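quick one
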Amino acid sequence: MRLIIYTGKGGTGKTVTSCSTAIRLARLGYNTLVVSADPAHTLSDAFMVPNIGSEPKQIINNLQALQIDPVVEMSKQYSTILSYMASIFSAKGIDETLAYEIAMLPGTTQLFSLLKIEEVERNKTFDALVLDMPASGEAMRYLYFPKLVGSIGRKLTGLAGMFSGVAKIFQPLSKIPAPTKDVLQSELQLLDRLDALSDIVKNRNITTLRLVANPDIFSIENAKRAFMSACLYEINVDMAIINKIMPPTAVGSEYYANWVQYQQQKVQDAKSNFYPLPVKEVQLYNTELRGIDMLERHAQMIFGDSDPASRFYNGKPFTFTPEGRTLHMAVTVPFTEKDDFDIERYGDRLTIKVKSATGTVVSIVPLPIAAAGLKLAKAKLNDHELNLLFERENDREKEKQM
Ligand SMILES: Nc1ncnc2c1ncn2[C@@H]1O[C@H](COP(=O)(O)OP(=O)(O)OP(=O)(O)O)[C@@H](O)[C@H]1O
Ligand SMILES: [Mg+2]
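structure w/ magnesium ion:
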């Protein structure tokens, strides 16, 4: 099976791009499923096919679509654990409705769309699966969860154990209901599924993540961060799509001319930011993108005549190596020692400004959370590889004093 995941900021075009990819795959003969976890009925809107719901619905030959309802999925697979967690909180006198809200871990709805993938893979019914994710990669964090829980004694302290621990902090002496056999059982099942899911998503032969952004700073930075996080999790990222670019023919008034010029600059920035990924530029069409015909044209714009199931890039543009008390980070960048550039750190990112013949290009390097308490000690460029060394703030001081 091949799994292609689209991620990016709200409204950039993830859903339409997922649908376009799925149509092209189906036309090429892959038995394809497109899955969306968007709220409301976005797949129905995009395909202009009514009533796409939580059971696969045929769209064209070889293509089925499914809209995940997180509430339905949750009551199918997670209700035992959830009601146990809620019982812990309501034992503390918290209103039951509120207890359920609290018991819901952040990102849970996304997690259920990912778990659906595990189910599809297990049933081996499809050759290709396209997943339209709601927000940028938050749920990816859960992929490390089974390992974490496993390492502290999977059988004894799972999710429920952890939660009763949390509840104890709030009120140490009161009674916590003990997890029943059912709870422990469904918990272990969930952990096994997360394990399997983690293997699928990290398998570079199966899974590829693609970034969708628009020609604006906000969505490019957002996608760049998703790019970095995916690399942290060692997930393959093979393409960035810059969608909704105003074509130069839109020039006619100064108002549009400004936009066209601004967006062209952002497209340049995107190329440098997503280097060395291939960057596909897609224009803003003269009408809202929907319906099978338009979606097919959109697929043509992105993939030309190539197969969307290919891997368009397979390198590792960000690598992280902790060495003792330091963190080493290597980033592939679109410039070399010969270029005129400067690096500045603003909190959780580095900004690199490169002066080129066509003006200044800005490249953002998002930093992992692990670098937050660390100081950038060295930055060295070897050809196209930027090597960054982070160390604890006071290590250098101590060295100086000695
Ligand atoms: N290149 C384009 N030209 C014209 N309209 C487009 C283009 N790309 C997307 N659209 C339109 O933009 C809107 C948002 O697209 P879409 O729903 O795919 O974005 P999304 O990233 O899935 O949004 P959300 O984050 O809300 O899920 C839709 O109305 C879609 O038809
Ligand atoms: Mg969407």
